[in-house]
Amino acid sequence: MILETEALAKRYRRRWALRDCTLAVPEGAIVGLVGPNGAGKTTLLQLIVGLLPPTAGAVRVLGGTPDAAMRSGRVGFVAQDAPTYAGLTVADHLSLGAGLNPHRWDAAAARQRVERLGLPSGQRAGRLSGGQRAQLALTLALSKRPDLLVLDEPAASLDPLARRAFLDETVAATTATGTAVVLSTHLVADLAHTCTHLVVVAGGRIRLAEAIADPTELERVVLDELGRAEAA
Amino acid sequence: MIRLALRQFRTSAWTAVVGLVVVAAAVLATRPHLADAAAAARRACGSEPHCPALTAFALDNTAARTVFGLVVIVAPALIGAFWGAPLVAREFEAGTHRLVWAQSISRSRWLAVKLAVVGPATVVATALLSALVTWWAAPLDHAAAAVYGTFDQRDIVPIGYALFAFAFGVAAGLTIRRTLPAMAVTLAGLLAVRIVVTEWIRPLVVAPRVVSMPLDPDTTGYGWGGNILLGVGPSTLQPTTPDIPNAWIQSVRVVDAAGAPLTDQALKATCPTLGQGPRGPAGPVPEAVRQQMHDCVARIGEHHHEVVTYQPGDRYWTFQWWELALFVLLTALLCGYACYRLRRFRG
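Above: the input entities. Below: the structure tokens describing the complete assembly.
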């Protein structure tokens, strides 16, 4: 398994953001994490990449701790709103990616990707459009040639057309290399075309985790599950 | 990481360079005149240490001396607020810590490299600034013969202040996670620590030298002293302070043979008319009052004498090194706190 969590829980002061979360992500899987705002999606993803320490339970990423996995450079992560350094140019970002991941950086692929997407390399990230910024952040994550890619609402800032293009492009880039992906979203429509597995989170608990058998039924399945979570 | 840290520091570094160039230009433009004026004053005075020409030279340049001194005092505060506080806080505000912490570099290393880039820059910038101003003011400082009066604007202590302010800014930014409040806290913290050290810690470094002398009936007056911040003392006899060049006079007291200070009762009993002179606008003191004061001090002087504690000018460098060491130690503690805080950081 690329990623396993066992009875994972996170409490902020007195509020449980996540409880009793047990998950397993196989190699090459594209997992869609769906749930309403505040369901615990971001908390779960930040636990996976070691930005948060768990209150209880355990995470194993690539067979080790999240910290070790991140230090190895085998995990790519794009945080919510795709943060980039507003004052640094696209080229600066690529060189910081190279400098911060000396053992796992595909400089040629990074440069090609930026050129193909038409990101002007001398442009400051603060002056890029939301979609371009998301693409830049994704380029940083992908150029590490990660075994696991973690994306927190990667398409949230994009318009519907750009969103579809971004997700298709992400899937194409990762399926080519066999990279496993965990991405969160609150739009079910995002999942149908991209994901192989579905995880529904609501109220800090996992309501459903299964492989997607029939994409056309996806929306109904998710809404049923969220409805039950609401009623409970 | 070092390239990213350098890249992020580039604008700040250029600002510092421009500031230093401006100060250096001002120093180089005015220093020759200052040196000439000092030489002329010394020629006029010959070997006499307290001559009007030298005093006039010092007074003529008070404004420029104050301005340069202020630049040295304010620079550490600016470094703390604009280099220290945003160093980490700005990353939190922009969310870029989630970008940089997701790379193959540990958080501790990330912070260590940032500190290793901006810390030495802080030392170099303040050392250059202080050296420039110290060199510029040397003729004036020599004429004024009050080395402790400009203690915190000269030589090596500004480096300590700047390092401390920088580390304080980083720690505040890491704790508060917002740039603007962290800047405000840094300024307040620097001011508070500087006051505490100046008022209460610095005098403890070396035991002061003590001299005793009889009260001088001609120059001793009556009144109160102190400052608004730290409180004003009650009215009592005010002997003049002895004129010791470059000395830092810490206290001037009137005590009896046993070392007990002059009490208000004893003073009132000996000189019942004291403090009851004519009130109103200041003017020449009537001869009768002057004579009463003279007699009063002479009577007090039969049982009491003046005790002065002071730090001689040749201890100046001892104080400089001690204060630098103290602030470097505080800097190290703050850096340790920042690392601890970072390791426990959530979110």
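Note for the figure: The domain at 8-85+145-231 of chain A is CATH 3.40.50.300 (Rossmann fold).
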